[in-house]
Amino acid sequence: MATTxxxxxxxxxxxxxxxxxxxxxxxxxxHEEQGEAQEHELAxxxxxxxxxxxxxxxxxxxxMRNEQDAQDVVQExxxxxxxxxxxxxxxxxxxWLLTIVRNTSYTLLKxxxxxxxxxxxxxxxxxxxxxxxxxxAILEHAEDAELMKNAMNGLPAEFREILTLRHQxxxxxxxxxxxxxxxxxxxxxxxxxxxxxxREYLASQMSQEK
Amino acid sequence: xxxxxxxxxxxxxxxxVEQHLRDCPKCEQAxxxxxxxxxxxxxxxxxxxxPPELRERIQVSLRETIGASTxxxxxxxxxxxxxxxEAVRGVFFDMPWNWLALAAAIALAAIVxxxxxxxxxxxxxxxFLATQLIASHVxxxxxxxxxxxxSSDQHTVKPWLDVKLDFAAPVVDLSGDGFPLIxxxxxxxxxxxxxxxxxxxxxxxxxxxxxxxxxxxxxxQKIVEREGYHLxxxxxxxxxxxxxxxxxxxxxxxxxxxxxxxxxxH
Lengths: 210, 266
Known about the structure:
The structure holds 2 protein chains of 2 kinds. Helix content of chain A is about 80%, strand content about 0%. Chain A is an all-alpha fold. Among the domains of chain A are: about 1-50, no CATH class; about 120-210, Arc Repressor Mutant, subunit A (Orthogonal Bundle), CATH 1.10.10.10. The radius of gyration of chain A is 25 Å and the shape is elongated. Chain B is of the alpha+beta class. Chain B has 2 domains: about 1-75, no CATH class; about 125-265, MucB/RseB, C-terminal domain (Phosphorylase Kinase, domain 1, 2-Layer Sandwich), CATH 3.30.200.100. Helix content of chain B is about 50%, strand content about 20%. In chain B, strands 1-2-3-4-7-6-5 form a 7-stranded antiparallel sheet, with helices on both faces. Chains A and B meet through helix 1, helix 2, helix 3, helix 4 and helix 5 of A and helix 3, helix 4, helix 5 and helix 6 of B.
């Protein structure tokens, strides 16, 4: 704020030089009030929402599965969020922003390829040999970043989002339920299914390696 | 079991599950696998931080949206404010020059003065403190501002802080409990200097602000939630503590408990 104010001052001081410009300055005053209110709103929006930029980007990146789309989604989501910011009175800015990021992601996903949302997980492939792999071996592979990334990306969008919201953003069941508009019981069961699928995928990867 | 794993059970049910896991090897094994999975998603799966250019891109596009609906902005140049001078000129045209200059000067003075006046909204002292704490926490997470002394060794952080501050802030390492010490920082809050210890909880950071308790500091333990951040306040010995983070309240309380325990053990 301090710098813009200084700029205004300079602007005003210069314009006292001639009569026509003084009139211009008087008009400028009125626009000033409007603009200042909006700048104030933008400043509080940024102070509240920019700290959650990493979380927004991470969610979008997992949902879109590519960097370019993720960045477009995040930018679009911030613009949408700013437009409806005056209607936001809650205390949980992060969950609010992430909800908008999620909705924006789905809009783009649907537009890009309706298939992505509906493609069922390939149970046949991923379920194979799951009994033959020991938990210890799964544990070992669970630390492999590349493998984990591929495994996560192999899951449907609804599993990708719930895993990242819970285990990376560490949102509570209740926060996730509110975001996805589903009951807490559904959050739990979906999360359990998502983890089970991920484990099956890891197991199938390992049996392929053998 | 999933709710147990996610730490979302009440203490009694949680204890029952714990008991069962001890007695049932099959469930215990399943639990270990689940824990590892949850851990792996949090740790091994990549966390995609936003690239710096994305932040800039967003800030520019946000400014464009307000620039479009007002006459502000350097890009607009002087062209937009002068769009309607004729209409206004009708009103002011015959006024003598010095009156206009005086009016403009008064308007200008009003703008400049308004920036120095206190804001009409005067928050309570505690709200104000909470705002300062969150602001300091957020600032610390911005580029390279997290620590003044980066060390996971409490025997490095503590002497460093002791030299800079007029009090000896307690420093303990909690890496064994899942809260590794990242470093320390100096801060100035509520009109006195404070030590800020930075701890990590998985991908998140906790700022623990410490200063010698003053008469104005609240005596009771307190939990505040604001803007998606949690603040936990407590007093122990001669010091006032404020822990600030976006981790859950449960994690922060756990942190408080562990901190107290470690401190007592010293």
